[in-house]
Amino acid sequence: MGGHYNDGLSATDARIELIRDWLASDLHWSITRLEPASADASFRRYFRVWGAHGETRVVMDAPPDKEDIQPFLHVGRLLERCDVHVPQVQAADAERGLVLLEDLGSTHYLAQLRGAGDVNALYADALAALLRIQVDGVAGAAELPPYDRAALAREMALMPEWFCERHLHLQLTPEDRAVLDATFEFLIGAALRQARVLVHRDYHSRNLMVLPVRNPGIVDFQDALAGPVTYDLVSLLKDCYVSWPRERVEQWVSGHHAALSARGFDTGGDAAGFLCDFDLVGLQRHLKVLGIFARLWYRDGKSGYLRDLPLTLDYVRDTAARYPQLREFSHWLGRRVVPAFLAANTRALAEARA
Questions:
Q1: At what angle do helices 246-262 and 271-298 cross, to 10 degrees?
Q2: Is 70 exceeded by the pLDDT of residue 10?
Q3: In terms of C-beta density within 10 A (0-12 exposed, 13-18 middle, 19 or more buried), how is residue 120 classed?
Q4: Percent with pLDDT over 90 in the chain
Q5: Is the pLDDT assigned to residue 41 strictly greater than 80?
Q6: In what helix (H) or strand (E) does residue 47 lie, and over which residues does it extend?
Q7: Phi and psi (nearest 5°) for 103?
Q8: 47 φ, ψ to 5°?
Q9: Which of 19, 68, 284, 317 is the most buried (most CB within 10 A)?
Q10: Who's near 122: CB < 8 A, 6+ residues apart?
Q11: Strand runs labelled E in 225-292
Q12: CA–CA separation, 132 vs 18, rounded Å?
């Protein structure tokens, strides 16, 4: 499941004992081994467990005072209706915040994309699954909260607070705020104009598992909303952990637009308009991610994402330079953000290593 691996199990971790007791007493599982599978950027953790005959499952540990498992269960059911491969739920205990899941293995897309994986085949599978989610998940999207103005604005507000002020040590002036406010307003309008679908919100290489059948396995979908049709596409193709040449990205985007149209889905415009929508919603996402990655270090002590800030900022700068409506923002980035970035990231990485 997406995220960074834990180092080991604490003998004093009460949640581990709770998991062992739940598996043995409630589910009558004879456990031979239990070890960390992964953790994500929230309070959720995942553990792989081995049964007496070598079979494996994954336990999601979501402390109920910090995480609610109901959205995970609900969205999982919606995605199953779209005939995509999400981990099958075999048992759930909402009171204790525990879920027993099908084991989708430990090979995520990122490892294959950075290694010897067949990039075209992997993306073909991921795009085909996304198409089913978007077209067949229309009824499911109606059961989800909207990706509305408030949510879009709240996400982008993380960028000035955590990335600009905390990470870059910028003192934002009223003029800076005015540029950011105008940019955010433009991006909110662009996102709200798009056709609405079921949006995973983190449909990227760390949340797609490579499987021999019904590839990919899709995880970490509990924060899904009903939102812009290009959002998950940009998460996939302008991934914060791996990048591709612009020409290749445009081919994938054009192909996805054609596939949506062939399934009778009205995107609201032609291929060029769809690409513009893709870029603008991508800018909204990457501004949010700049804030989140910085917050994960300064608030939560998770330094791994600092190394992903340069690529995320590159995406922001590239999109800002492409559109005349973003010219002022592009100039602001070059004047205020870029000069401060390298020193700030170098400093934070040194602190993390200390």
A1: 120
A2: no
A3: exposed
A4: 90
A5: no
A6: strand 45-51
A7: -90, 115
A8: -125, 140
A9: 284
A10: 109, 112, 113, 210, 215, 216
A11: 225-228
A12: 37
